[in-house]
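For the sake of transparency, this paper describes our internal protein records without simplification. The record that follows is passed on verbatim for readers who wish to inspect the format:
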Amino acid sequence: MAAAWVPRNWRPDGIGAGCHPGLGVPGTVGSAATILDGHPMAKNGEASRAFGAAFTSSVLGGVFGACLLAVSIPILQPLMLAMGTP
């Protein structure tokens, strides 16, 4: 099975400019913190570990946010319905 071609700066959020720890250049404001640890790790030959840490923290943050949203919707639903349309 052939691998699908993915643009180099592709991101699932559609911004299209990820960070590159090997160069020490953040692509967005959100990836600036990754560069602080990722660039030195890439210099030490641990770039895959830096990408893994960034990916893991991103997944955990996304799952936590989705769970928080799922819990808060039933709690806030009466308030939202009480406001109605303008």
